[in-house]
């Protein structure tokens, strides 16, 4: 039996970081043949009564949605991770507990990530929005493009310019913890214990009615809502501890490079290989000073060790990210037709196609592979040095950043072309 494990998400806040910055990072661990795309959606206003079609269900649209950059499995509406123009960052994790996750099709955790980013201008507001939607519509449906029905509940790590929130759910019940300094990481297990800053009003009563809590002992969310008997939890437990140790090692000077190195770490299992692998990665650098821009780095390709983290900055005009956009099949998409998932169309975007070829060269030709990796890292370092100026001194001319991610992908493609 393969225990699907998925994802590690990290956040570091002053004083654990270098400078007055918040560093957010996530590896999205998904089936190894799944394509992850990176897409930008501008801010928009909607008329009263408009609806939005999420992965499986339709819900009420908000009057206004913020501009977002998303990294998402190409077959669905939601996202594994992303950020919005207010520098809110969100990543989600699969969690399994006592509550059965095999419910009806509803909102996926990935839909909730996107909805939180589109609708919230602070991390705390994202917690409120996600939990309201969860209570109204529920969570459920297959989280894999497959008839096997891989389902789970979700935990979320959410940050903005001043703090982070950990939100953990079990069915429609949930607890949230505010993180104001230091660092925090989550893997596929409940991590909120006795420090609960917000919660579902019926959460404790429900646990009591199920016989999970006697109403006397101090309430510990992870203890009450988890079951600690499956292989899944054990694998995530070791990744969680490794992740925590890696953060601890750099405590006081965690920066973007530290976070990228953690996401690339194979010994810890954080950079996952095999049937489930790290199919997309994100690192965001958010200065606490609102006058400075946040910079969001995305790979849009699998295995961060063999990928380039490319920068994105929110400015008013942004060029469409065609090279990281997968083909769209509209209403003909097998995900949209019931019964779902009867076939799998080709979802590879242009960058993914080229990256696949290069990954094969790296795998089979040692010398050539070393050279390609050297050039990839060189390009990444150039980009990070350029971004350091923005992060320190702010944006002088926003028109120079309209094509930032697009141009960085072009440069990555030209590195591949030479190989």
UniProtKB/TrEMBL annotation:
Which Gene3D superfamilies does this entry report, sorted A to Z? Penicillin V Acylase, Chain A
Q: Which residues are the signal sequence here?
A: none
Per the UniProt record, one Pfam family is Peptidase_C69
> Which sequence ranges are marked TM in the entry?
none
Locate the region Disordered.
Answer: 325-346
Compositionally biased, Basic residues: which spans? 337-346
Any one GO molecular-function label of the UniProt entry: cysteine-type exopeptidase activity
Q: Name one GO biological process term.
A: proteolysis
Domain of life assignment = Eukaryota
**InterPro entries, per database record:** Peptidase_C69
Spell out the family assignment given in the record's similarity comment. Belongs to the peptidase C69 family. Secernin subfamily.
Give the matching PANTHER family: SECERNIN, SECERNIN-3
Protein name (Swiss-Prot/TrEMBL): Secernin 3
Protein's organism: Myripristis murdjan (pinecone soldierfish)
